[in-house]
């Protein structure tokens, strides 16, 4: 399936069907991130149940600490 991820068209492996699987594929599952799907922010508790479909627009923002 092809999605728009952070402004770029990306082809996802067929096993990536949820937001949780997408984050895991980018090694982001343990980081503090905000995920938006088609203009809606997804609650972290719903990542496992939130499906990703062909043509979705996904934005992932992760926070980096520093000082």
From TrEMBL:
InterPro entries: Beta-grasp_dom_sf (IPR012675), Mopterin_synth/thiamin_S_b (IPR016155), Thi_S (IPR010035), ThiS/MoaD-like (IPR003749). It holds the Pfam family ThiS. NCBIfam families: thiS. This is Thiamine biosynthesis protein ThiS.
